[in-house]
Amino acid sequence: MMNYARLLVLAMLCAISVSCDNGEQSSGQINVSFEQSTSNQSNIDPEKSKHSYAALEKGAKKNDTWSQFYLGVLKAFPADSIYWQLENGLTDNALSKSPDKQLKQFREAMQLKERSLDPIEAVDLLEKASAAGCGPASFILGALYLENPHSLWDDEMGREKYVEYLELAHNQGYLVATAQIAGHILNGTHGYAKDAIKAKNMYLEVYEQGDALAARFLGFAYWDGKFGTNDIDKAIMYFSEAVSRQDKYAYVNLGIIYKDEGEIQKSIEAYESAVKLGVETGAINLGRALFDLYPKEYRDAGRAKKLLEPFALRSSGSTGDAAYILALIAESEADIEACIKWSTVAMNNGHAAAAGYKLAWAHIDVGAKKAYGRVPNEGVVFSDLDATSLSRALQAFKVSANDGNAWSAYYVADLISKGKCEGYVLDAYVTHNGDVVGMNGQLSGVFKTSHDAAIMKEAAGYICSARRIAVQSSDQALVRNCDSWLSFYRYTCY
Description:
By secondary structure, this protein is mainly α. Helices cover 62% and strands 1% of the residues. It is built from 23 helices and two strands. The protein has a two-stranded antiparallel ribbon. β1 and β2 (435-436) form a beta hairpin. α4 (65-76) packs parallel to α7 and α19 runs antiparallel to α20 (387-402). The longest helix is centred in the last third of the chain and has 23 residues, at 450-472. The protein is globular.
């Protein structure tokens, strides 16, 4: 089952049957095609975005329910957060009862780059819309309480409020909420008793009312064997039905399932359909498959790069996926400059552990080329490299280590103890029979200066952290490396 953060985005993408009109009837739905409604809107005039945002503020002050709802969403979530990774994905059919004026204002205001967040006001606006019977407001208010992106309340309260507002949204006729409750019943989460038969019946009830998300969820359930055995044919049937109901993200699921079933051309076509509709995950999945997941005769790194680069260069919080795959491609092509570029983007956008590690080694490769005239297959000696390359590698290893990469933590300690990186040059060791005398676990009387002692204490902290993670993950090679370091410097982890 997909995680909740992804569901919040998907919830806004599926047709609903709910009214928040507050007495105001829609003057007619926006009649645009699926393709038109999902086109890229990044070229909207900034002044128009400001005007639309101000119009929503004005409407909210007049207690217009839809204006309160849309403004509450804008004030709750930043554009680069998990909720807006697919910021152009709010199709017009997602909010079928929304007056076209407010929907248009929201889509334009969503592009406003200088938009201040106010979670307290967001809660107030969404609560007012929810009290007026707006199911989407109740649902997203629950999401806000659960995710607690601004740390305004404790987690227990957030979970309780989430269920409270999810149930309210369901009672207000918001089909997405009903599908979500069915998912919790299917998996026995958030206090709901696990019952696959009841969940299936709820899904089917919502599905029969034309809901796209229910079709997608049924596809997942049959794919994962939640109703007994895996039924790939039914999974494909429901994913295809979700697509026919204008759920463009279901194309990605079809791409994955066709790849797994060995129907590569169908997989490519499904991914391509998603890409044409602006779905970033479609480009990411297709790009990765073209790089190294499809059979060799279908691989095309050049095409993968063309697919991924536009997404990697966007300023959204999801660019890390595309950038990281580009870094993998650059590494395979021995393109150090490109590897540094894309690893940096990925490291700063959600891939700190893996991309930081890759970035560090790219900087080491730069140093190796300076030192040896080439990048050797193995046998790089850190002490042979220039201080600048090592210092840059150290900083990348630190970012990666702080995000939980144990090998990066080991290399942080290794580089620090070499005494050559900027800010970590060691003054002197006290030697004994020509060997380095370590810290003996106490750091007393070992180094001539407190500066050296502090450096080595920091290094030891990284080693102990690396060893702890290595033991937990059964990485015996790393455990041996850490033990060698500890033995050499005569230090014991406590």
